[in-house]
TrEMBL record:
Top-rank lineage group of the source organism: Bacteria
The keyword DNA damage is assigned to this record: yes
One annotated GO molecular function: endonuclease activity
Domain DNA mismatch repair protein S5: 205-323
Entry annotated with the keyword Nuclease: yes
Name this polypeptide is given: DNA mismatch repair protein MutL
UniProtKB keywords: DNA damage, DNA repair, Endonuclease, Hydrolase, Nuclease
Function: This protein is involved in the repair of mismatches in DNA. It is required for dam-dependent methyl-directed DNA mismatch repair. May act as a 'molecular matchmaker', a protein that promotes the formation of a stable complex between two or more DNA-binding proteins in an ATP-dependent manner without itself being part of a final effector complex.
Organism (species): Marinomonas vulgaris
Length: 327
């Protein structure tokens, strides 16, 4: 089974950034309000993530590392309406099969913490007592130490860290009520406090995307036909040569979707020339039953039940905002 995990790891674990994504999503699913992320050497040497979520019970610790051990789906109906970020029960098994992992946790309502360790294919079965406040710490060292072929595909420390930071950024932009602290090689990159109001949301946005974006954007918040769209739209004058400041979230998940991209491009059509790209941080909220966000475990596609409705809504609302400020 550990070999199967290594094979599955190829799907889920491509680089340090994908490890961070899976671990942070687990922490968020566990209801954590504070996430501390410490990485070394772009995450290749070490990724340590600590959360204050519900934790994992002693008896479930080893289980959490085995394949298809998910606590998130109980019935087929659940599968239909997954609201949690992860649900396949593959991530921890996959990551631990290609690294040296320590998993330490104290479950809610318990007074003791416990730890399991796994090293590549060798899984430590013994659960040992540990010291930890409520929540979970996952410490992943030496990613791909036992899969040299995969290690070869890793880029420079700087590139790997850039990918990793992008993952943290996206999650931080989708969970304002959660605190995120990130450090690289012992140096703090940022410490984002939990946010409850618009002013502090903009502060977080400025930290992550630059003050210039906030100063050159408009806010919107509109609702129609069960769809809500809110966020920040960069002024046409703040367009970029790269599509690097485009964030679109559907029900709290980052999405890269053709239909969405098309609607936004159309909305900016009359004001953008010379291949420049719009900038935006937008949140679409709709009934989860009308959208499938789990088309692929790592790709960011979605399938809307009524694509036409969503497209027209996005286009018309964004176009209206832009038309109002047209030079
Ligand atoms: P999935 O998220 O798809 O269920 P994972 O392999 O990512 O599968 O995690 C396996 C299980 O381990 C989860 O279902 C959850 O019960 C538990 N788990 C993992 N990380 C955490 C965490 N940070 N806090 C609490 N439970 C966790
Ligand atoms: Mg998961």
């Amino acid at each position: 089974p550990r070999l199967a995990n290594q094979i599955a790891a190829g799907e889920v674990v491509e680089r340090p950034a994908s490890v961070v994504k899976e671990l942070l999503e687990n922490s968020l699913d566990a209801g954590a309000s504070q996430l501390d992320i410490d990485v070394e050497q772009g995450g290749v040497r070490r990724i340590k993530i600590r959360d204050n979520g519900t934790g994992i019970m002693k008896d479930d610790l080893s289980l959490a590392l085995s394949r298809h051990a998910t606590s998130k789906i109980i019935t087929l109906d659940d599968l239909e309406a997954v609201r949690t970020l992860g649900f396949r029960g593959e991530a921890l098994a996959s990551i631990s099969s290609v690294s040296r992992m320590h998993l330490t946790s104290q479950a809610e309502g318990e007074s003791e913490a416990w730890r399991v360790e796994a090293e590549g294919k060798d899984m430590a079965t013994a659960v040992r007592p540990a010291s930890h406040p409520q929540g979970t710490t996952i410490d992943v060292r030496d990613l791909f130490f036992n899969t040299p072929a995969r290690r070869k595909f890793l880029r420079t420390e700087k590139t790997e860290f850039t990918h990793l930071e992008e993952v943290v950024k996206r999650l931080a932009l989708s969970r304002y009520e959660t605190g995120f602290r990130l450090s690289h090689n012992g140096k703090q990159v940022y410490d984002l406090r939990p946010v409850t109001d618009q002013l502090h949301a903009e502060h977080r946005l400025a930290t992550l995307l630059g003050k210039k974006f906030i100063e050159n954007s408009l806010t919107l918040d509109v609702e129609a036909a069960g769809l809500r769209l809110w966020g920040w739209i960069g002024l046409p004058t703040f367009s970029r040569s790269q599509a690097d400041l485009q964030y679109f979230f559907v029900n709290g998940r980052v999405v890269k979707d053709k239909l969405v991209a098309h609607a936004v491009r159309q909305a900016y059509r009359d004001v953008l020339y010379n291949g420049r790209h719009p900038t935006f941080v937008l949140y679409l909220e709709l009934d989860p039953a009308t959208v499938d966000v789990n088309v692929h475990p790592t790709k960011h596609e979605v399938r809307f039940r009524d694509g036409r409705l969503v497209h027209d809504f996005l286009f018309s609302r964004i176009h209206k905002v832009i038309a109002d400020v047209r030079p």
